């Protein structure tokens, strides 16, 4: 059966699995946590890659490729950094039948692969800033339930690793990259995100601070980390002895570093936010096919010459759209009915369908059908290009607006602990005053978990998602992380959200159940 059996609001997990397989995005694979990326999803990854590459090249970031294997020595350069990660590191221990003298790890991320080379290359501040990025795969043998795109044992990403002479330059780049990630979501994927800083508990332990874009899946009320941009300070440069002369005269200075990454998880978020019970709904800016042209009304009684004329007319529509840089295909398959084709391309989420039949030909008109809201529009043949480009823009904007509205109506600003738990169980995110202490965050997570009396399972409690740059008490978003960490120093009346916590709040923090 072509169509979907599961309904998105009834059985989200099954719906997701059916949509990604029946639309030709994913095929399952016999290694747990690994999936095949078929053209329909890989083409989207390529468009995201093209967008990011253009922007980072403009920022002076250069492409490179480092080995995927890392020695134990390099990986464990600084125990603190990887202790809690060690269980998910995959190791190559044999070659053929023989054990390897020195097993090597498969990269889970490339700091420890790249920074020994950075130490070799960087001697003088004249070689700064060094900005490299690699598009590759990484492996993390996680044990939590795998989910295609969202949590996989191997995934594709880009990882940017930059080194600067001063902290100021580095901190400026962190936010420029974060803004680029927000645009990947909002301008390409039509997914609204919240920019912010991770709390002490949630940040990357190897860095100074982690900035993040957080997305929201309204169907199950869960938040998901969309991409991260870390300021590493001098932690790694001290670990790997990356220091240069020429900054402080006669002295050597450890460089200031950033690292930033965006993964194939982006595709899963886009699917879950926009998909419906007929299948994918692709934002035009990333749709591999934006318009599908389907001839209609071809009946057996129609003469061969009439059929030929109709087909030629459809072909000229396709040609004209192609010339105008619209990603368009025709579906002239004689052995499939128009109805079958409508379902097929709706399942694949193609933003606009053109139905073209004898009557359209006579009246010199074209019928456009939007995938997102099924609106039909009959336009003059000679207004085709204008109408299609205008409709594509309208679809892109309305997908973002609809998702923004959903996000906004699911964020509740609460200062009361009982309200916090109540709204959390109504699939909402909470914006609450928070003291920032890790152990308080542990308490919030434990005390907001819910025992489901029906089946005795426990629904996870609320995690901190980020400290939003847009703070309720401030008129404009903050510009620096230092500023964010100090915003309540003055008027410090607010108590931390957690009832039994005596600390004063430091900032408003976004909490929620998450992936
Ligand atoms: O998130 C990014 C963006 C791109 C470059 N890297 C950073 C930090 C990655 C943190 N992280 C994340 N996961 C890890 C898993 C591991 F097994 C080990 Cl050994 C280390 C890590 C680890 O450092
Ligand atoms: Mg992890």
List the helices and strands and how they pair.
Blueprint: H1 12-22, E1 26-28, E2 35-37, H2 39-58, E3 62-63, E4 69-71, H3 72-75, H4 79-82, E5 91-95, E6 98-106, H5 111-121, E7 130-139, E8 154-164, H6 167-188, E9 194-197, E10 209-217, E11 222-233, H7 235-239, E12 243-245, E13 252-254, E14 256-263, H8 265-274, E15 291-295, H9 304-323, E16 328-330, H10 338-347, E17 352-356, H11 358-363, E18 365-370, E19 376-380, H12 384-409, E20 411-413, H13 417-424, E21 429-434, H14 438-447, E22 450-451, E23 458-459, E24 463-468, H15 481-485, E25 507-512
Parallel strand pairs: 3-7, 15-16, 15-17, 20-21
Antiparallel strand pairs: 1-2, 4-6, 5-6, 7-8, 8-14, 9-10, 9-24, 10-11, 11-14, 12-13, 17-18, 18-19, 21-25, 22-23, 24-25
Helix pairs in contact: 2-6
The protein binds the ligand O=C1CCCN[C@@H]1CCCn1cnc2cc(F)c(Cl)cc2c1=O and magnesium ion.
Describe the protein in words.
- The protein contains 15 helices and 25 strands.
- The chain starts with 11 loop residues before the first helix and ends with a strand.
- Helix 2 (39-58) runs antiparallel to helix 6.
- By secondary structure, the protein is α+β, with helices and mostly antiparallel strands.
- A hairpin with a 6-residue loop joins strand 22 and strand 23 (458-459).
- The longest helix is centred in the C-terminal third of the chain and has 26 residues, at 384-409.
- The protein has an 11-stranded mixed β-sheet with strand order 3-7-8-14-11-10-9-24-25-21-20, sandwiched between helices. Strands 16-15-17-18-19 form a 5-stranded mixed β-sheet, with helices on both faces.
- It has helices at residues 12-22, 39-58, 72-75, 79-82, 111-121, 167-188, 235-239, 265-274, 304-323, 338-347, 358-363, 384-409, 417-424, 438-447, 481-485, and strands at 26-28, 35-37, 62-63, 69-71, 91-95, 98-106, 130-139, 154-164, 194-197, 209-217, 222-233, 243-245, 252-254, 256-263, 291-295, 328-330, 352-356, 365-370, 376-380, 411-413, 429-434, 450-451, 458-459, 463-468, 507-512.
- The structure holds ligand 86X and magnesium ion.
- The ligand O=C1CCCN[C@@H]1CCCn1cnc2cc(F)c(Cl)cc2c1=O is lined by residues 75, 82, 85, 88-89, 108-109, 111, 140, 159, 204, 206, 228, 230, 259-261.
């Amino acid at each position: 059966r072509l169509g979907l059996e599961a309904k998105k609001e009834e059985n989200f997990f099954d719906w997701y699995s059916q949509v990604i397989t029946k639309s030709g995005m994913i095929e399952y694979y016999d290694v747990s946590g690994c999936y095949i990326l078929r053209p329909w999803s890989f083409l989207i990854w390529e468009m995201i890659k093209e967008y990011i590459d253009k922007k980072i090249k403009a920022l002076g970031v250069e492409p490179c490729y480092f080995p995927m294997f890392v020695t134990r020595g390099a990986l464990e350069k600084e125990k603190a950094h990887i202790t809690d990660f060690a269980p998910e590191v995959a190791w190559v221990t044999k070659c053929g039948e023989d054990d390897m003298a020195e097993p090597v790890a498969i990269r889970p991320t490339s700091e420890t692969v790249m920074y020994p080379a950075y130490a070799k290359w960087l001697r003088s501040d004249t070689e700064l800033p060094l900005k490299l990025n690699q598009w590759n795969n990484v492996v993390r043998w996680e044990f939590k339930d795998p989910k295609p795109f969202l949590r996989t044992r191997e995934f594709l990403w880009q990882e940017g690793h930059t080194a600067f002479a001063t902290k100021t330059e580095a901190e400026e780049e962190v936010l420029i990259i974060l803004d680029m990630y927000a645009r990947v979501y909002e301008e390409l994927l039509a997914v609204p995100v919240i920019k912010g800083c991770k709390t002490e508990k949630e940040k990357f332990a190897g860095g100074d601070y982690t900035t993040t874009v957080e997305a929201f899946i309204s169907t199950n009320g869960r938040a998901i980390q969309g991409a991260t941009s870390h300021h590493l300070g001098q932690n790694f440069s001290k670990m790997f002895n990356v220091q240069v002369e020429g900054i402080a005269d006669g002295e050597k200075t450890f460089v200031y570093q950033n690292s930033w990454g965006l993964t194939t998880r982006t595709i899963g978020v886009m699917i879950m936010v926009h998909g419906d019970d007929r299948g994918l709904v692709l934002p035009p800016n990333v749709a591999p096919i934006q318009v599908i042209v389907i001839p209609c009304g071809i009946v057996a009684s129609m003469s061969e010459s009439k059929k030929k004329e109709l087909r030629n007319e459809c072909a000229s529509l396709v040609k004209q759209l192609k010339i105008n840089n619209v990603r368009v295909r025709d579906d002239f398959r004689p052995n499939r009915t128009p109805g079958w084709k409508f379902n097929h391309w709706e399942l694949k989420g193609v933003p606009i369908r053109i139905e073209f039949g004898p009557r359209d030909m006579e009246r010199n008109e074209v019928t456009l059908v939007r995938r997102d809201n099924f609106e039909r529009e009959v336009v003059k043949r000679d207004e085709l290009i204008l109408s299609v480009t205008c409709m594509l823009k309208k679809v892109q904007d309305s997908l973002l607006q609809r998702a923004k509205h959903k996000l906004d109506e699911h964020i509740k600003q609460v200062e009361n602990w009982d309200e916090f738990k109540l709204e959390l169980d109504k699939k909402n995110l909470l914006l609450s005053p928070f003291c920032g202490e890790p152990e308080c965050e542990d308490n919030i997570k434990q005390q907001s978990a819910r025992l489901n009396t029906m089946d005795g399972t426990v629904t996870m409690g609320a995690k901190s998602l980020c400290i939003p740059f847009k703070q309720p008490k401030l008129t404009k978003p903050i510009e620096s992380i230092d500023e964010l960490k100090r915003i309540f120093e003055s008027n410090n009346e607010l108590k931390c959200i957690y009832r039994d916590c005596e600390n004063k709040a430091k900032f408003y923090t976004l909490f929620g159940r998450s992936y």
